[in-house]
Request: fold
Amino acid sequence: MTPIRIVMLSLLAAFAVGAVASASASAASLEWEVCEELAGPGVEPPTKYDNHKCNTQIEALAKRKWEWRLLTGEYLTLSKGTKEFKLEVGGKVIACSGVTDHGFILAGGKDDATKIVFTGCKAGPNGCKAKSAGGVAETIEVTNIKTQLETIGGKLVDKFEQKTVGTTKEFVTLEFEGATCAGEGFVKTKVKGNVAAECKNLANGNVELNFPKPAIAQTPKLEAFGLEATLTGTTEEELENGWAHRCV
Reply:
């Protein structure tokens, strides 16, 4: 084997090892962090903060009791405010005027979205009332969805995964109320597939989840009425106890 070939093979091996190490480091970094109060005085370097938002270092070091820590247990989360969400599919639009949710962030970048409730949900130009199957008109309730932090296209995202219901997978089954609904194509349908939101850390210690258009690529793709669908909207997530949290 020539010296040049030996050098080339050595470089390729080094690149391969580096790529694996980089991928491992990237995967390990996809976590939820929480600004937690810790026992004992601050230590050098002064990474501790004055309050539960981890945003000021005015107090003397010994009085700083808060620090960013990787999540090891679970914290209750809830969404803040009302934002419009839209499900668009094959020229059809289902629009909801607000959304609230409750769930838990967990170690390993995981999240249990125990209940997501969309309100003021209407479909089509004549205001058909959309709802989850057997539910209240204009209210879509999605339960027990698992999420996972991932890096897609250089962006940190929170991936929402469909659940198993009986023998099928879905997010939710939708129904519609109104005289014109069926004629406009709004008939009972399952919303299936996965969907992802870009995760952005806000200055107030909360996390913004943005479902963009075009959608962040997912497998399987989101669908409704048997066609590819796009979910858009933004929600702000906070911890029930008011402490800051972030995706990293």
User: Anything to note?
Assistant: Residues 73-247 form a domain with the Porin fold (CATH 2.40.160).
